[in-house]
Structures are given as C-alpha cells and as structure tokens.
TrEMBL record:
The chain crosses the membrane at residues 12-34, 40-63. This is YrhK domain-containing protein. The keyword Transmembrane helix applies. InterPro entries: YrhK_domain (IPR025424). It comes from Amycolatopsis thermophila.
Length: 84
C-alpha cells in the first residue's frame, strides 16, 4: 500500500493522531502549573505539538487528494457530463 492510498483510505488516522496530540499538548500545558513537573511538561508539549502537526499535515494531504480525484467542492469532476 502506497502512502498516497493510505492517506486517501484512512482519514480517521489523521484525526486520531491530531486528537491524541491535542490531549498530550493540553496535559503538558497543565503540568506547567507546578515547578516539579516542568521537565515532563516540556516533553509532553513537544510531543503533543508534533502530533498536532502530523494530524494537520495528514488532513491537508487527504483534502488535497480528495479534491484532486473528485474536484473542489461545488465543481464537477473532470469527465462528468452536465445535463441541460
């Protein structure tokens, strides 16, 4: 399975990665409240940010691929005849 087909076939994976990244980012943010947990907070902040970025990039590729195959929203896909 190619990366392109994976991106097209499993958009929920990108959403899940983004959601997990958001949760980790949030937990890391809360841990900044206490000085004893700042080191953990920094790493959770970094890991969560990376997860959010991966989720957003995957979603962008999915939308791009969907538009490439089906046309942009409101546009007729190439090769589809119009009825008059």
């Amino acid at each position: 399975m190619s990366v392109r087909s994976f991106v097209r076939e499993f958009p929920v994976v990108h959403l899940a990665i983004g959601v997990v990244g958001n949760v980790i980012f949030f937990v890391g943010s809360v841990l900044f409240i206490w000085s004893w947990s700042e080191q953990i907070a920094v790493w959770l902040f970094i890991v969560g940010s990376f997860g959010m970025m991966l989720g957003a990039i995957g979603q962008a590729f999915y939308i791009h691929e969907r538009h490439r195959l089906n046309g942009a929203p409101g546009e007729r896909p190439a090769g589809v005849a119009t009825r008059n």
